[in-house]
Amino acid sequence: MKGDNLNIPRHVAVIMDGNGRWAKKRFMPRTFGHNAGMNTMIAMARTAKKMGVEYLTVYALSTENLSRPQEGLEGLYNLFRKYFTKNVKDLYAEGAAVKVIGDIAALPADVQELIKDGVKNSPADACFFVILALNYGARAEITRAVNMAISRGEPLSEGDVGDLLYTSGIPDPDFIIRTGGEYRLSNFLLWQAAYSELYFTDVLFPDFNEREFKKAIENYSKRNRRFGKI
Fold first, then answer.
1. pTM for this structure?
2. Which of 4, 5, 7, 17 is catalytic?
3. What is the domain-level CATH number for residue 104?
4. Which domain holds residue 36?
5. Is the pLDDT score of 124 beyond 60?
């Protein structure tokens, strides 16, 4: 599959929207949709790697999500407890390393440990990276960077700001996909998305299968990225 005469983005970021609505359509609880979304994410990672993508960032939990009712959050945390280690091992088996961006300190202690172990035990020689955005918000990320800069007391260049973000050392996303029929970035990678190509689809994330991912990449491949130039 790799190549297929397509221009493959080095870094794809995905706003995985629609899990809850997918479950509601089936008269099932939201956790049913989130579990289906986890399975789709693993399958998407496999497809992305086979196509030649090097970095895949997935918006798994936003800072705003933490304001949801505690019962719903506990259901999501329980999915982490039940499936996170297995899913991470599946990614390892694909030769993928796991990275995390966001402030995980606000998550339950046992969930934090699962996440840290997932990052720590990643293959050292990986050439494909799955980046989980957990308790992530771009405004909070930029505010954190500004406060770090103030503490240093030195003027910053754009590159310096980039080095202070959670994504330091990770190339900006070439392509951002949002599923679920919404047309906004929702506080996701606002600094890094300055010249990202955007793609929106009505497909709910659990249904965003290999065919849909390839369709999105084919759309990207036809675009002419000028980065503000003629």
1. 0.93
2. 17
3. 3.40.1180.10
4. 11-221
5. yes
